[in-house]
Structures are given as C-alpha cells and as structure tokens.
C-alpha cells in the first residue's frame, strides 16, 4: 500500500489507475490511503462537461484536451457512462472519441460506470478526481453521463461547469426550466452548423440575461467539435470564468461548498454501512416492514427503533 | 455492490469490421462486466496505454484483417513493458487454427474463432481473470 502511495506521488500511471479502482470498489484501504495523500490535492483545475446524450460531450472534451495540451499542461479525464440497473454491466464508450489521446503521455483518461448513482456522475468520481490531482494533472475534465433535466451533481464536483447543448432540442420554455439549465457556467451550442443553432443560442442567452446574480453571465459559445471549430472560444470562456471565480472569491466558496457536499456523502456512506451491520445486514428492516404492513407498527416508530441502533435519535 | 470485472475490447490494426467486437461487448455487459470499447483502428500502443489507465482485468482484441500474428504479440509485449503482465489477454476473430499455437506461445491466453458462443468467452474470462 505504501508502495502505491510512493508510486502515485512519482506520477506512475499504473498506480493512479489501481488507486482509482480501489476507491471505485470501496475497498477498505481507500480511506487510510487518501488520508495521508489528501494534503497533495488542490492543484488541479476541475472542469465539468455535461449535456444530453449525443450532444458531443466526448468529442468536445477530446478537442478541448488537445488544445490545453498545446500549452504543456497535463490533463486528466474522467468519463462516466451509465451502468445497467439489471446486470451491473456497462459499455464505457467515451474513449472512442478520444483515441488520439491514448498515446499522449501528458493525458490520463479513465472511464467509469455510474454504478447505480443517478446524479450524472458516479459515487467515486470525487475521489478519482482527487487521485488524478495528486498524480499531478493540471486540468481535470469530468465528462458526465448524458443527462436529462435534473442530473446536477456535476456542479458539486467541479470548478467550472460547461453545459453542452445542440440545436433543436426544444423551445424557449425548455431554456427557462429549473434544473440542468441552471448549472452551466459556460454554455456551448455544439453542432452549430445545424438548423436553428442561432435561435437556440439566442434563447439560452436570453434566459441567462434574467439571472439574478449578474456578476457572472455565462457566455454562450458555438462549436462544431467534430471539425475542431470554436474550441478556442470555449477555452477562453473557461479561462474567464476561472479568473472571475478567483477574483470574486466565489471559487473558494464553491470549493468549500463542494467539500461540504462530499463530506456529507462520506458520512452518509459510512453511517449506512454501520447501520447495516447493526441491523443484522438489513434483517431488522425486513422484520419491521412486515410489522408495518401488518399494522403492528408504523414507519415512524420503526425509524426511531432503527436509529436507536446508532444511538442518534 | 460487488466488484465488476473490467474488460477492454479493442480493435487493433486496419480493419473496419466491429460487429463481432460489439456483439461480444454487449454480451459481456449483460454478464455484468464493465466493458471499455476503444473503437476501430487502434495501434498496439493505444490499446496498451488504455488498458493501463483503465486498470482492466482483461484485454480482448478482435481482429479480422489477418495481421493477428504481428499485432497481438505486440500488444502483449507492450502490456508487459507497462507493468500489465498480469492482465488476462485474449483474442478473437477470423484466425486460422494453424496460427493459434503461435499466438498462445506469445501470451494469448485463448483465441475465440467465429461460431464461439458468447457464454464460452464469458465463462473463460470469469474463470481466468486475476482476482
């Protein structure tokens, strides 16, 4: 284990890859390992790429990474795809669009299955980001599962959220709905050579004009990622947002907010594990559920009984 | 959740036929594995690098171009060089029976030719990955 630590700090890819598997599989060693290494995090800038399936997230990520690489900065990519709720299996296909990056020594790409997590990223995404940060990546891109309207977890895992949309997905009512449309710090209309691109851009820009907090109005960039068009514009927007976050102090606030969120998740995870152990691996739940159905108990009394096992209530 | 087996399904070299690879990928997915698919026309370097970064338990190369005796040993060699000698390495595709002993000698744990039921491949992977 110490060996893995050393190897990660030396920037060895196999060690980073192994450690990500360890946190992904929730192996018990993970927390001990990351306790020591945690002080080495915080150097990478984390960019979330989200949007509906087929919008071009992987293609855009590929082009953004290539462009960042020209500056000499090293890049990590974490790409998440859905896991089957039936078999636990997954097809992780984001690498298909990034195969040129496979031979670039300054790039580390990792595909992850969402593994039952519904917010657009996987439970272990945050820890995987920390590992790539310690490994030495200057920029880390997180590409989410293709999202619908309410998968907004990415915003709690990154510094700048890029929301990728495409023309023709809906009218201006879609643009003012709550949820995913609220989380973009930078908006990208990809496949901008398609009909309706300018209309989509205007609708989104108009929605953004109505923002209450006017200190940052997200820019709306147009790209044709497959042809490498508009990429520099997106990078400039990301850089501007980064600068804004630094100068306004919001960047620090957001990192605290994100850590608070992941702390809450860690505590919940561990409490769930302890609770399961103390309730005969859920056997107590089964027993109480039967009593509730038989009207011998009620859900609220049962909750008190279960939490009693944790000495919390 | 128990730890899923991770498999890299790769298409080395210059052949544009990936129906077989996709059928296998789908079958492995349905068997509860996480399948990382690389896409077409990959060099051995690209495949080995992806395998290391993805920390896979198995690399499965599908090849129909006839260049298997050159490309498969090269992938295995690179995996070894990059510290992935413990990764289960298998091949499949249109590969003449006469070539299989050579591929096995070069580190291919098994070679699955056309007509192999996907269950055979699944069982082989489950039985042979290092856990």
Number of helices of chain A: 11
Q: What is the residue-averaged pLDDT of chain B? A: 95
Number of strands of chain A: 8
Sheet bearing the most strands of chain A, described?
7 strands, parallel
Kindly provide the name of the CATH class of chain B.
Alpha Beta
Strand content of chain A: 5-15%
The CATH architecture category of chain B equals: 3-Layer(aba) Sandwich
Number of strands of chain B: 5
SSE pattern of chain B: EHEHEHEHEH
Q: What name does the CATH topology of chain B carry?
A: Rossmann fold
Please identify the structural class of chain A as seen in this structure: alpha/beta
Oligomer: heterodimer
Overall geometry of chain B comes to globular
What sequence of helices (H) and strands (E) makes up the elements of chain A?
HHHEHEEEHEEHEHEHHHH
The amount of helix of chain A comes to 40-55%
Sheet with the most strands, sense and barrel status of chain B: 5 strands, parallel
Structural domains of chain B: how many: 1
CATH superfamily of the largest domain in chain A: P-loop containing nucleotide triphosphate hydrolases
Query: Runs of chain B with pLDDT <50, length 5+?
Result: none
Summarize the structure in short.
With 313 residues, chain A is an alpha/beta fold. Chain A has eleven helices and eight strands.
Q: In terms of topology, how is this protein built?
A:
The complex is a heterodimer of chains A (313) and B (131).
Chain A: H1 2-9, H2 13-24, H3 29-37, E1 45-50, H4 57-69, E2 75-81, E3 90-92, E4 107-113, H5 125-135, E5 139-143, E6 160-165, H6 172-176, E7 186-189, H7 197-209, E8 220-222, H8 231-248, H9 250-278, H10 283-293, H11 299-308
Parallel strand pairs in A: 1-5, 1-6, 2-4, 2-5, 6-7, 7-8
Helix pairs in contact in A: 1-2, 2-5, 4-8
Chain B: E1 6-10, H1 19-30, E2 34-37, H2 44-54, E3 58-63, H3 68-81, E4 88-93, H4 100-105, E5 110-112, H5 118-128
Parallel strand pairs in B: 1-2, 1-3, 3-4, 4-5
Helix pairs in contact in B: 1-5, 2-3
């Amino acid at each position: 284990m110490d060996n893995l630590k050393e190897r990660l700090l030396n920037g060895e890819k196999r060690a980073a890859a192994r450690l990500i598997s360890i946190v992904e599989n929730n192996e018990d060693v993970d927390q001990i390992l990351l306790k020591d290494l945690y002080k080495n995090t915080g150097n990478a800038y984390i960019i979330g790429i989200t949007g509906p399936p087929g919008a071009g997230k992987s293609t855009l990520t590929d082009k953004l990474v290539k462009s960042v690489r020209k500056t000499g900065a090293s890049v990590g990519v974490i790409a998440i795809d859905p896991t089957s709720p039936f078999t636990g299996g997954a097809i992780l296909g984001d690498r298909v669009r990034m195969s040129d990056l496979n031979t670039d020594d300054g790039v580390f790409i990792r595909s992850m299955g969402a593994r039952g997590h519904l917010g657009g990223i996987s439970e272990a995404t945050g820890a995987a980001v920390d590992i790539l940060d310690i490994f030495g990546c200057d920029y880390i891109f997180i590409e989410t599962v293709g999202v619908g309207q309410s998968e907004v977890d990415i915003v709690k895992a990154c510094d700048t959220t890029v929301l990728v949309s495409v023309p023709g997905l809906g009218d201006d009512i879609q643009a003012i709905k709550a949820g995913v449309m609220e989380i973009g710090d930078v908006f990208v209309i990809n496949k901008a050579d398609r009909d309706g691109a300018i209309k989509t851009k205007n609708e989104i820009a108009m929605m953004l004009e109505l923002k209450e907090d006017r200190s940052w109005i997200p820019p709306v960039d147009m790209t044709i990622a497959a042809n490498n068009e508009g990429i520099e514009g997106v990078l400039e927007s990301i850089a501007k947002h980064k600068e804004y976050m630094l100068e306004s102090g919001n960047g620090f606030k957001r990192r605290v907010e994100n850590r608070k969120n992941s702390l809450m998740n860690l505590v919940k995870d561990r409490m769930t594990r302890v609770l399961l152990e103390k309730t005969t691996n859920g056997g107590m739940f089964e027993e109480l559920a039967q009593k509730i159905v038989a009207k011998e108990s009620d859900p609220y009394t049962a909750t008190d009984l279960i939490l009693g096992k944790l000495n919390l209530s | 959740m128990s730890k899923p087996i991770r498999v890299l399904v790769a298409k080395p070299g210059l052949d544009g036929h990936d129906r077989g690879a996709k059928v296998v990928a789908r079958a492995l997915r349905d068997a509860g594995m996480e399948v990382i698919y690389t896409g077409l026309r990959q060099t051995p370097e690209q495949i080995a690098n992806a395998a290391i970064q993805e920390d896979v338990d198995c690399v499965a190369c599908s090849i129909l171009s006839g260049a298997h005796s050159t490309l498969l040993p090269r992938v295995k060699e690179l995996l070894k060089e990059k510290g992935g000698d413990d990764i289960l390495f298998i091949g499949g595709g249109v590969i003449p029976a006469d070539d299989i002993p050579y591929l096995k000698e070069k580190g291919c744990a098994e070679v699955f030719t056309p007509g192999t039921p996907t269950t055979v491949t699944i069982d082989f992977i489950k039985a042979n990955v290092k856990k």
